[in-house]
Automatic annotation (TrEMBL), chain A:
Topology in membrane: Multi-pass membrane protein
Name of this chain's protein: ABC transporter permease
Principal location listed in the UniProt entry: membrane
Region forming the signal peptide: none
Spans traversing the lipid bilayer: 7-27, 61-88, 100-127, 147-168, 199-224, 257-280
Matches recorded under InterPro entries: MetI-like (IPR000515), MetI-like_sf (IPR035906)
Organism the protein comes from: Prosthecodimorpha staleyi
Pfam families associated with the record: BPD_transp_1
Keywords linked to the UniProt accession: Cell membrane, Membrane, Transmembrane, Transmembrane helix, Transport
Localization in the cell: Cell membrane
Gene Ontology CC annotations of this record: plasma membrane
Domain ABC transmembrane type-1 residue range list: 66-272
UniProtKB/TrEMBL annotation, chain B:
One GO term of the biological process aspect: transmembrane transport
Name the record gives this protein: ABC transporter permease
Pfam families: BPD_transp_1
Segments forming domain ABC transmembrane type-1: 72-260
Family note: Belongs to the binding-protein-dependent transport system permease family.
Originating organism: Prosthecodimorpha staleyi
One GO cellular component term noted in the UniProt record for this chain: plasma membrane
Localization terms from the record: Cell inner membrane; Cell membrane
Length: 285, 270
């Protein structure tokens, strides 16, 4: 039996090797790359230097790209929460065939690629597209708005891309709330909205926290949407990193930027988690 | 007590207001997909919604574009290999995960989904340098490795969830009756986890089919995947051919959703 258990453990080796060799080693390797000198004929040199960190920290251009990424990711996260909560609440109350249909409506966009969904927004936001046609039809504008290649469209498309990542954890959290708590509140004379405000909303907080963290981390590192819908004029951190790596082949500089973006993300997530720690503790109590 | 129709009570105004809001949000969620599918059937020359007339000409156009068809074939091949390799590896890892006890078990679970927790951009950049270092830079094998790595957690999560549903007593009964470990796995465990296994393979395939950032960084010389080809196509010529190509990938996603529902139910999968 002992031997069987040890054999069973060995089955995990290929997966552990995959993740160690092709993920942990490469990321460690990338940290080393950020200290390399720039190359002359190669993408990097043989010596070590701190110059890339100095350069990134001292250049307002990179601060601008990072600031824009932070601003967009925060806006997307907040908007995503606002539009996802009603859907998650509604989904959590559904059952039977209705539930299956609603899950399918949320899963279908999730399983369709990001690029394909962004392309859909390109069509909708085109100069003579359905969005402009409706605005004109309603008399809200007198000539078509230029929506494509604006930051507003980037935000809208990102909210769409990440909405399922917010809906699903909140839905699970609301489903986990014991119905007896809601009944108890009602029997003690609380109104529906008071029950919602004082019981359901706080108890769904673990789902909100998971969704917010997930969406922020994904949104700040998103590349396709800003690259396709943001146009060439505005730079975000991920588009800048990819440009350094595949355009100008400055690998050490690209690594430094990638590390800077990761550390910033980690810092924001840590601050958010600590700030909401007490709230989460109160919910658990 | 029945569940409230809205968080704010059952007054008609609250009911209709909340209902309308939810419907609008679902419209928002589905609008891009409906628009693409609609635009792909236009008989006009421009990408537009609502489409002008009905025709299948853009699907014909798509299959006449050698570069788009080649990219579709690369995506399908890489996706299929990813699905097969990740589900076998994830099945093995999930069995190993059962044997890892205590705190170490928790770390093992986190390790297995690490590619999901770290942004694709960061993993892709690291992998790009690493593949060059070991001589696989800009090769199809390198791209394949990147796809297997990024899709592995999806297969692992589905399969280990399915494995947890199998009562351990079944395995014990089987071995007390004299079955070897392999016999128990083949005759008892495997049939019971098969839906989870197939679901894991579907998730791995769909994820691989959609990967963009990783594919862009690891793009092999002379080859490309459908999302990359589609991006280039959209940047240079904005024609309904792209809508036809995108509709094909929406169709794949819908087939995936239907299969997952049949196998284990969407609620358990998400």
């Amino acid at each position: 039996m002992r031997r069987a258990a040890r054999l069973q453990l060995l089955l995990g080796l290929p997966a552990v090797a995959l993740i160690f060799v092709f993920m942990i080693l490469p990321i460690t390797n990338m940290v080393e790359m950020s200290f390399r000198t720039p190359g002359v004929t190669e993408p990097f040199g043989n010596d070590y230097t701190l110059m890339h960190y100095g350069r990134v920290l001292g250049d307002p251009y990179y601060w601008g790209a990072l600031g824009r990424s932070l601003l967009v990711a925060t806006t997307v996260t907040v908007l995503c929460l606002i539009v996802s909560y009603p859907v998650a609440w509604h989904l959590s109350k559904a059952d039977g065939l209705k539930m299956v249909i609603l899950y399918a409506l949320i899963a279908s966009p999730l399983m369709t690629g990001v690029l394909v969904r962004n392309f859909g927004w390109m069509i909708i936001a085109a100069l003579n597209g359905p969005l402009n046609q409706s605005l004109l039809g309603l008399g809200l504008v007198d000539r078509p708005l230029r929506l494509l290649f604006t930051q507003g469209l980037v935000v809208l498309a990102l909210v769409h891309v990440f909405m399922p990542f917010m809906v699903l954890p909140i839905n699970n959290a609301i489903r986990n709330i014991s119905p007896s708590l809601v009944e108890a509140a009602a029997s003690m004379g609380a109104s529906r909205s008071a029950t919602f405000r004082d019981i359901v909303l706080p108890l769904s907080f673990p789902g909100i926290q998971a969704g917010v963290t997930l969406v922020f981390v994904l949104a700040i590192a998103a590349y396709v949407t800003p690259a396709l819908l943001g146009g060439q004029m505005v730079t975000y951190m991920p588009t800048q990193i990819i440009a350094e790596l595949t355009g100008t082949f400055r690998w050490p500089l690209g690594s430094t930027l990638a590390i800077g973006l990761s550390l910033t993300t980690l810092l924001v997530v840590a601050v958010f988690t600590l700030a909401t720690w007490r709230l989460l503790d109160r919910v658990r109590a | 007590m029945t569940a409230a129709a809205t968080p704010f009570g059952d007054a008609p105004a609250a009911r209709y207001g909340f209902g309308l809001l939810v419907v609008l949000l679902y419209v928002f969620l589905l609008a891009p997909l409906v628009t693409i599918v609609g635009a792909s059937f236009t008989s006009g020359m421009l990408i537009e919604f609502p489409p002008r007339g009905f025709s299948l000409q853009w699907y014909g156009q798509f299959f006449q574009r050698d570069n788009l068809v080649a990219a579709l074939l690369v995506s399908l091949r890489v996706g299929l290999i990813t699905a097969v390799v990740t589900s076998i590896m994830a099945m093995m890892a999930a069995l190993a995960g059962q044997a890892v006890a205590g705190k170490l078990g928790g770390w093992f679970q986190i390790g297995m989904v690490l590619p999901l927790l770290v942004p694709e951009l960061l993993t892709g950049v690291g992998l790009l340098f690493f593949l060059y270092k070991i001589g696989l830079g800009r090769s199809l094998l390198g791209l394949q490795i990147g796809h297997i790595l990024m899709s592995f957690p999806y297969a692992y999560v589905s399969i280990s969830a399915a494995l947890r549903q199998v009562p351990p007593s079944l395995g014990e009964a089987s071995s007390s009756l004299g079955a070897t470990g392999w016999q128990t796995f083949r005759l008892v465990t495997l049939p019971l986890v098969r839906p989870g296994l197939v679901m894991g393979a579907i998730f791995a395939f769909i994820n691989s089919f959609d990967l963009y950032t990783m594919s862009l960084l690891l793009k092999p010389v002379g080859g490309t995947t459908l999302p990359l080809a589609l991006f280039d196509f959209l940047t240079y010529e904005f024609k309904p051919t792209a809508a036809a190509a995108a509709t094909l990938s929406i169709l794949l996603a819908l087939i995936g959703v239907a299969l997952v529902q049949r196998l284990v139910g969407l609620q358990r999968a998400f």
